[in-house]
């Protein structure tokens, strides 16, 4: 199997008494988008700082494109791009000047730097705003500039920190398309995000961190299948039929839940064919269905359950 471009093996990090990371493993292949999820303080920033050589791990190893972050810092820094709270651009400078400056800092001469800046401005649809100070950019433009700034050195690995926070839905989709394009071009992306919809849409694999430990890992579909619950929601035509319907459903082997008032019954189901069983049981009990809904588990269910229940156990390292 090809070597992963991002690899953390049993990484721990302590700040005095605080154990910010506790034996974390992460592996991201070439051209893959990996989501790092967790509450504030879970250890996401600490891990990204270690992977980008801004911090040394207390123990364990981390490699980027095969380079050890503790021993080959310069090679690692050449291979990566940082965005968001991990890096900054100058608000007073124009988009073009920011990108040119970064290219010069990375060793390009002024002609090469200007040409790389213009190429990225074009790619990210910012040419028209190239000479405006970025303090005047909209949120979506600013985020596109942030990402383009991290790509000046053509990195093979990029760390994206909450790339769509605060953006409107159109701008958010625009950023998602850019991230997908990067992965298609072979860039490995480590994405920290609070938006589970974003992780669901973009990430091939997700690592869920809690208090410095990995508590779940898998594809979005695997995580949802493990933890989430499919649910059928039935609204009856008459609230008076609720006791009859509940009895019929229980008799059919289902586990109906009702609310304090109203004509709604929700029934957890394992397979979609259970839907037919529910409808048949209600028909046979002569209760009239006004509305029928079927909901798949979401990543929110996974996240809430694993991060709020004491049962959220770290996965083996
Ligand atoms: N320099 C530091 N000194 C002491 N403690 C620190 C330091 N940096 C981080 N911590 C602690 O380590 C833990 C992990 O913090 P970290 O910033 O990595 O979490 P996070 O998941 O990135 O949170 P957020 O989503 O808020 O950025 C927290 O308890 C934090 O207080």
TrEMBL record:
UniProt xrefs under Gene3D superfamilies: P-loop containing nucleotide triphosphate hydrolases
Chief location bin: membrane
GO molecular function: ATP binding; ATP hydrolysis activity
Keyword Transport: yes
Domain ABC transporter stretches: 6-236
GO biological process: daunorubicin transport; doxorubicin transport; response to antibiotic
Compartment annotation: Cell membrane
InterPro entries documented for this protein: AAA+_ATPase, ABC_transporter-like_ATP-bd, ABC_transporter-like_CS, ABC_transporter_ATP-binding, DrrA, DrrA1/2-like_C, P-loop_NTPase
Membrane topology designation: Peripheral membrane protein
Keywords of the record: Antibiotic resistance, ATP-binding, Cell membrane, Membrane, Nucleotide-binding, Translocase, Transport
CC annotations in GO: plasma membrane
PANTHER family according to UniProt: ABC TRANSPORTER ATP-BINDING PROTEIN (PTHR42711), DOXORUBICIN RESISTANCE ATP-BINDING PROTEIN DRRA (PTHR42711:SF19)
Family listed: Belongs to the ABC transporter superfamily. Drug exporter-1 (DrugE1) (TC 3.A.1.105) family.
Protein name: ATP-binding cassette domain-containing protein
């Amino acid at each position: 199997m090809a070597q992963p471009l991002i690899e953390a093996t049993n990484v721990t990090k302590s700040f005095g008494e605080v154990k910010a990371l506790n034996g974390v493993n992460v592996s991201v292949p070439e051209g893959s988008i990996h989501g790092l999820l967790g509450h504030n303080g879970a250890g996401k920033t600490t891990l990204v700082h270690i992977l980008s050589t801004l911090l040394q791990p207390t123990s364990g190893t981390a490699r980027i494109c095969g380079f050890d972050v503790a021993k080959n810092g310069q090679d690692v820094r050449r291979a990566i791009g940082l965005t968001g709270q991990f890096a900054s651009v100058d608000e007073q400078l124009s988009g073009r000047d920011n990108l040119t400056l970064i290219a010069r800092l990375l060793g390009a001469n002024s002609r090469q730097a200007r040409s790389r800046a213009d190429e990225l401005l074009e790619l990210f649809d910012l040419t028209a705003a190239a000479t405006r100070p970025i303090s005047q950019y909209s949120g979506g433009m600013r985020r596109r500039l942030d990402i383009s700034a991290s790509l000046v050195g053509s990195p093979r690995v990029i760390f994206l920190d909450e790339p769509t926070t605060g953006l409107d839905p159109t701008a958010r989709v625009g950023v998602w398309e850019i991230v997908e394009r990067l992965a298609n071009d072979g860039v490995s992306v480590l994405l920290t995000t609070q938006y589970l919809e974003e992780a669901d849409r973009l990430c091939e694999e997700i690592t869920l961190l809690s208090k410095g430990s990995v508590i779940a890992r898998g594809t979005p579909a695997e995580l949802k299948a493990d933890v989430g619950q499919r649910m059928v929601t039935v609204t009856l035509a008459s609230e008076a039929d609720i006791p009859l319907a509940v009895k019929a459903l229980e008799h059919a082997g289902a586990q109906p839940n009702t609310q304090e008032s109203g004509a709604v019954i929700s029934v957890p189901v394992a397979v979609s064919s259970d839907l037919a069983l529910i409808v048949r049981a209600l028909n046979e009990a002569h209760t009239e269905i006004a509305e029928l809904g079927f909901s798949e588990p979401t990543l929110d269910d996974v996240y809430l359950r694993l991060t709020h229940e004491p049962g959220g156990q770290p996965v083996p390292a």
